[in-house]
């Protein structure tokens, strides 16, 4: 009897939150905006400070790769003087600080959620570094980029080689003197390689399978064409790859200096050394797979394919535009280079730009697949009351970006409100029968 009374007392003293939101980035604040509109009580937990990723994981010359007009956070669209431009790092931070102020969320910064578990009696237990809570529903808005990926073979590199992950890169001057090897050619890798190249550093780039696209084509930004074509409204279940598109690497392009293509072949003509995918490390010698030619050709094929789809749209709709064109490679490797000696090439720094892994170990709920990725349909999981927001291709291309997180947040807020209403109806029915 005493144990039961103690358990009831302890349960009664634990604060209860109807909705707990984990993560104080743009996704967490977007769902907070929608919940506030619906007068749904909630609390946002952020282990660092709101929007901290934008100041701590971005290099100095970072800028958006999508036009400013696509910044459409809920209730806070871009209102600056350059809608077709690309905000730089400081401008992005200012925009997000304005969004935070406008939302004014019930936010607890510096509070890390250590464990969320399903309670047998319903709802969830939430353990944090600042105490315990119970919650009726959980929104996971912490993104999917948690653990920087560095291959174990990096442990075999000479100790004098300076190694960092892309999230640690700030500028060329912060690196030791000497040449730099960038491993990975996705958005971060390609843009960091360009940043170093423009700063006059000798750059070696291990090129992966990332696709590329044009910045401008036939008189307009390619993003604007694709928006008009409805690409950014295409739900994942209608994409030709279905959920497989979530595993795709983003196209490399840049908004730097007003926006332009990133053309690795032109970089090669200007002195950048390109290789295929990194294969192994033996002392100071790195070996690469013979994939460079194929990687460049495949990226160009996608580039021309996107432009061809724009050509078709223009023709079908009778739109007046400058004439079409096809990208012709200005350079091609005579053969795929297969090795690099760090000593002979003077490489003193390696930057790993091969992405992040998700880390949802704190969430004890049956909502994951064998790879540790959440299974959901538009952010709604099989576990009642558990939702995800802000993941790439959660619903559409823009789900993990400023352009469409508002739409996803509104959809989930409706589901949350419906569940709250259902729970209230069930309680009322139970009380009437007692």
From TrEMBL:
Instruction: Identify the Pfam families for this entry.
Output: Pyr_redox_3
Question: Per its UniProt entry, which superkingdom is the organism in?
Answer: Bacteria
Has keyword Transmembrane?
A: no
**Keyword terms of this UniProt record:** Oxidoreductase
Q: Name one GO molecular function term.
A: flavin adenine dinucleotide binding
The name of this protein is: Putative flavoprotein involved in K+ transport
**Source species of the chain:** Methylocella silvestris (strain DSM 15510 / CIP 108128 / LMG 27833 / NCIMB 13906 / BL2)
């Amino acid at each position: 009897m005493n144990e039961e009374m103690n358990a009831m007392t302890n349960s009664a003293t634990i604060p209860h939150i109807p909705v707990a939101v984990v993560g104080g980035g743009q996704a967490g604040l977007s769902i907070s905006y929608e919940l506030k509109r619906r007068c749904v009580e909630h609390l946002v937990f952020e282990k660092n400070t709101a929007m901290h990723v934008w100041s701590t994981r971005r290099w100095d010359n970072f800028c958006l790769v999508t036009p400013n007009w696509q910044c459409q956070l809920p209730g806070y669209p871009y209102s600056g003087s350059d809608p077709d431009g690309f905000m730089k790092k400081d401008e992005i931070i200012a925009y997000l600080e304005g969004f935070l102020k406008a939302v004014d969320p019930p936010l607890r910064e510096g509070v890390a959620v250590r464990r969320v578990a399903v309670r047998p009696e319903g709802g969830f237990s939430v353990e944090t570094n600042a105490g315990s809570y119970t919650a009726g529903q959980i929104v996971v808005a912490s993104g999917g980029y948690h653990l920087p990926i560095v291959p174990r073979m990096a442990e075999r590199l000479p100790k004098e080689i300076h190694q960092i992950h892309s999230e640690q890169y700030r500028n060329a001057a912060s690196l030791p003197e000497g040449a730099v090897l960038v491993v990975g050619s996705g958005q971060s890798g390609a843009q960091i390689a360009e940043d170093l190249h423009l700063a006059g550093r000798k750059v070696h780039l291990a090129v992966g399978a990332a696709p590329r696209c044009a910045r401008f084509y036939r008189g307009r930004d390619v993003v604007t064409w694709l928006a008009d074509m409805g690409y950014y409204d295409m739900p994942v279940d209608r994409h030709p790859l279905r959920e497989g598109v979530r595993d795709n690497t983003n196209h490399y392009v840049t908004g730097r200096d007003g926006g332009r293509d990133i053309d690795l072949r032109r970089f090669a003509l200007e002195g950048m050394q390109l290789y295929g995918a990194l294969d192994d490390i033996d002392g100071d010698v790195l070996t690469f797979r013979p994939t460079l030619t194929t990687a460049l050709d495949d990226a160009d094929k996608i580039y021309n394919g996107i432009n061809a789809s724009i050509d078709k749209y223009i023709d079908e709709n009778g739109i007046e535009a400058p004439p079409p064109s096809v990208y012709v490679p200005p350079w091609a490797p005579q053969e795929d280079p297969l090795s690099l000696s760090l000593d002979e090439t003077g490489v003193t720094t390696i930057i790993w730009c091969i992405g992040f892994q998700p880390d949802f170990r704190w969430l004890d709920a049956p909502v994951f697949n064998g790879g540790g990725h959440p299974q959901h349909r538009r952010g709604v999981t099989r576990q009642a009351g558990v939702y995800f927001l802000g993941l790439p291709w959660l619903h559409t291309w823009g789900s993990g970006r400023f352009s469409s997180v508002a739409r996803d947040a509104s959809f989930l807020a409706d589901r949350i409100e419906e569940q709250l209403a259902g729970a209230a109806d069930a309680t009322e029915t139970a009380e009437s029968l007692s």
